[in-house]
Amino acid sequence: MSQATPTDTGGIHAPRAGARAWFALVVLMLPVLLVSVDNTVLSFALPEIAVALAPSGAEQLWIIDAYPLVLAGLLVTMGTLGDRFGRRRMLLIGATGFAAVSALAAFAPTAGLLIVARVLLGFFGAMLMPSTLSLLRSIFLNRDQRRMAIAVWASAFSAGSALGPIVGGFLLEHFAWGSVFLIAVPVLIPLLIAAPLLVPESRDPSPGRIDPISILLSMAAMIPVVYAIKSFAVDGPTFLAAGWALLGIVMGTLFVRRQLRAPTPMLDMALFRRGSFSGAILVNLLSVVALVGFLYFVPQHLQLVLGMSPMTAGLALVPGMLAVIVAGLTIVPISRRFPPHVVVPAALVFSVVGYILVAFTTEGHGALPLIIAFVVLGIGIGAAETISNELILSNAPAAKAGAASAVSETAYELGAVLGTAVLGGIITAFYRGALVIPDAVPAEAAHAARETLAGAFTTAQQLPEAVGGALWDAAASAFESGVTVTSLIGAGLVVVAGVIAAVTLRTPASH
Questions:
Q1: Which of 373, 318, 364, 335 minimizes the C-alpha distance to 158?
Q2: pLDDT tens digits for 386-437?
Q3: Rg for the chain (alpha carbons), in Å?
């Protein structure tokens, strides 16, 4: 299996990879599946963690937030270090650390130690995802084969997101909360055995010197921005959130200035002047915002409004995730015949239709409209993500694939945070504004009900049947009105992504 060099064109006439490369792809899917499952499975374990470890409100937030904050802050750094020291080496170090820390997290005796474990999981997790995507760039030199490999990579990520609720529901019905962390061990051990045998090492042959200041600036830019978004989602617009955002912007500006002046920059800013690179990043970002925003409010509707169990609600989302996978694979032969500035906007039309279906069919129609809407939404997201990821890698020199992959992964993480913060914040605001509390509800109970739909559900169960029923009817109606508005905003975001794709993806990839 040949390795990529700076002169590889990565075009359709490049050498085609053999069977060993496809076995290597299977191995690289293991950490992708793990990280995507980990993104969704923890939310199912939080109630049991809260009972077992009794975290404070702040500690509970940090149990959730520590991992994505550290992950987002280190992605670019780890991608660049992979280019320098070897992408397979970074993958193996990350897998070893992730498996070991997952075992420690499973038996954490206090909330504080669990937070420390989540920080370390973010540190090692940042080594995994850029390594997997950038290794595809060096393994599959032929662009048609690379498109298919990236489609499989994206499909594995989607499959993991779908498996998260199902795996979480099963484990928590049969085992303690720590089992959601222990699943990392049996997944990563085969990777540690097979990767040295099947996955070739690749690195930048002329990496330049390590720039510690750039590393610190990249972290100082990403972590405050992600934290500001999460703070806004929880507490609304505050001076604290604005201060963190401003700090991140200032640090980001300093990082960009340093990269522009450096003879061998940590991240080549010239990539962003290519329309197909920067456009693909924005399409990635907005697509993930739309997908994660959808996944924020739909499970609440299925479980709380429609009364499904977590396992059943997770199964209801599977057809949509399968649509993401099928669309990602199907779009590969189509993309050979039509240019990306046509294919991506056409695919995103499906996602717009999916959101509009949610907006106008949710109230009083049961689960079927949501399942259909998610399938339609998934078709657009799956196709757009495959094309945009391939464009990101094709526009970057093979030697800098790790850094380019890290930018793509950062867009994923920011999109996930923004999806929860923006669309989740909007639906929460509309819910609180539309909720009319019945007069018979005590003030303390009314406050709890106004905070979240889950709070209203718990409060309604504790009140007399007539009063609790009236409160729950009002809460469900308020939530559904918020779903309508949020869905229309989500549709608008996808339209913006489609326009960006139509305008920017005309520039051909040069690598």
A1: 318
A2: 888 888 877 777 667 667 777 777 787 777 777 777 777 778 778 888 888 8
A3: 23
Report CA-CA distances (Å) from 140 to 143, 240, 288.
7, 46, 25
* Cα–Cα distance measured from residue 508 to residue 511, given in angstroms and rounded to the nearest whole number: 9
- Measured distance CA(172)–CA(416) in Å, rounded: 25
Query: Tens of pLDDT along 460-485?
Result: 888 888 888 888 888 888 888 888 88
First-to-last C-alpha distance (Å) of the chain: 19
Distance CA 283, CA 420 (A): 17
Residue 81's nearest CA partner among 123, 36, 24, 117 is: 123
Residues 6+ apart with CB under 8 A from 34: 98, 128, 160, 183, 184, 187, 188
Which two structure tokens, joined as six digits, stand for 148? 């298919």
Q: What is the pLDDT of residue 467?
A: 83
Q: What's the CA gap between 12 and 24, in Å, rounded?
A: 21
Burial environment of residue 152 by CB neighbours within 10 A (0 to 12, 13 to 18, 19 or more): buried
Amino acid identity, residue 153?
A: W
Q: 91 near 129, Cβ under 8 Å?
A: no
Look at the block and give the residue holding tokens 């200035």: 257
DSSP states of 308-361 as a string? --HHHHHHHHHHHHHHHHHHHHHHHHHHHHS-HHHHHHHHHHHHHHHHHHHHHH
What are the C-alpha distances in Å from 465 to residues 288, 301, 306, 459, 460?
41, 22, 18, 11, 8
Residue 427 contacts residue 478 (beta carbons within 8 Å): no
Query: What are the C-alpha distances in Å from 510 to residues 8, 342, 400, 409, 507?
Result: 11, 19, 14, 21, 9
